[in-house]
Specification:
The protein is mostly beta strands. Helix content is about 0%, strand content about 65%. It is globular and about 65 Å long. The relative contact order is 0.09.
Length: about 350
């Protein structure tokens, strides 16, 4: 990262054992129990500041499943972990699956989650900025409650299966590492959440095969992601407000040819605001803190032979690129250099071809 040297080493071990027991002959009730163990050693160095730590996390868990008939499944579980740095914490969870008739399936889930956030390694891209990072701890525990519901429908349309999916998920963070690039003109701050932080995701998708061997997927996801940054509830920077996807896949008879075509739609979003101290020093257009929606298209053709295949494809063949992704690129050691506000493709059209061999040992 230029003059900023960041070195990190990690050694990690994970092991678990699970015991499953059915409580009755009809298998309506079953229980899973088990334990796990996580061991990790971390060593990081940034700005000549050496940080080392060891994590030991033994845990136990239990899961109960109730399935009175084929149309209903209820699963409830809880686990307890004993972290050598964060102490003991519990994470409950419940899942439900209900088949409402021949064509409709309803799924729901709710629970709590916790994870260890490695503050520097997960945000190392921020080092590519003239502003140094400021942080209070190199490791932090994030906790959140999440809830979701999904509806799956299967029908026949012109004697071919049509699948319709709709799902909604929400996450409410209790603790979180927040990247604050807007409060200070001299530093990028990595700090614990002080306020609200949540994520709402609503998704729809349709899958259909209008003719034999021709698959079509249409998908749309709306994102509402907000964090408290500098005492103000704001949209999370560089996050698209929506995403869309259209894919077409056709395979010829006997799988001699395969054609893939993908269209990705990306909604606009917010760019971190420049601190007031910088506003008078640089010329900023009014729409600088927003990025516009954009579309990326990819395609690939594959020809199959007995033991090998050849393919030709193109990525981003509309040649869309983010303009000026690096601020202050003409002065890489200046105080306004910043390569962290990348929200779109920085490489243009890319054409490629390749050859694959399949080794058959039969």
């Amino acid at each position: 990262y230029g003059l900023n040297h960041y070195n990190a080493d990690e050694t990690r071990f994970y092991g678990s054992a699970i015991l499953t027991r059915e409580l009755d002959v009809a298998a309506k009730h079953s229980v899973n129990t088990g334990f796990s163990f996580i061991f990790g050693e971390f060593s990081e160095n940034l700005y000549d500041r050496q940080m080392e730590r060891t994590e030991k996390v033994p845990g136990v868990f239990a899961e109960y499943t109730y399935k009175p008939h084929e149309n209903l499944t209820v699963m409830a579980g809880i686990r307890s972990d004993f972290h050598n740095r964060f102490g003991t914490f519990f994470t409950p969870r419940v899942h439900l699956r209900y088949k409402a008739g021949k064509h409709v399936t309803l799924r729901g889930s709710a629970g709590k989650g916790a994870r260890t956030a490695n503050v520097l390694s997960e945000n190392n891209y921020l080092i590519a900025s003239a502003r140094p990072l400021q942080w209070t701890a190199d490791v932090f525990q994030e906790k959140a409650w999440n809830y979701g519901i999904a509806l799956v429908q299967n029908y026949l349309l012109w004697n071919r299966e049509l699948q319709l999916n709709a799902e909604y998920f929400r996450t409410d963070f209790q603790t979180q590492v927040v990247v604050d690039r807007e409060t200070s003109a001299s530093n990028i701050i990595l700090a614990p959440l002080n306020g609200k932080s949540f994520s709402n995701s609503l998704q729809f998708d349709v899958r259909y095969q209008p003719i034999e061997r021709f698959d079509v997927l249409l998908a749309y996801r709306h994102n509402d992601v907000k964090q408290t940054i500098g005492g103000e509830l704001l949209e999370k920077p560089l996050t698209s407000r929506y995403k869309g996807l259209i894919t077409f896949n056709y395979t010829s008879n006997l799988k001699k040819w395969m054609f893939d075509y993908t269209i990705q739609f990306n909604g606009g979003g917010r760019i971190p605001r420049v601190h007031e101290e910088w506003m008078d020093r640089i010329d900023i257009p009014g729409d600088f803190f927003e990025f516009s929606p954009y579309t990326v298209m990819n395609a690939q053709i594959t020809k199959y032979f007995r033991y090998w295949n050849v393919y030709l494809g193109a990525e981003n063949f509309t040649d869309f690129r983010q303009k000026n992704p690096v601020a202050g690129a003409d002065d890489p050691f200046g105080q306004h250099f910043d390569a962290t506000n990348v929200w779109g493709p920085v490489k243009g059209r890319r054409v490629y071809m390749g050859l694959r061999f399949t080794l058959n040992y039969e």
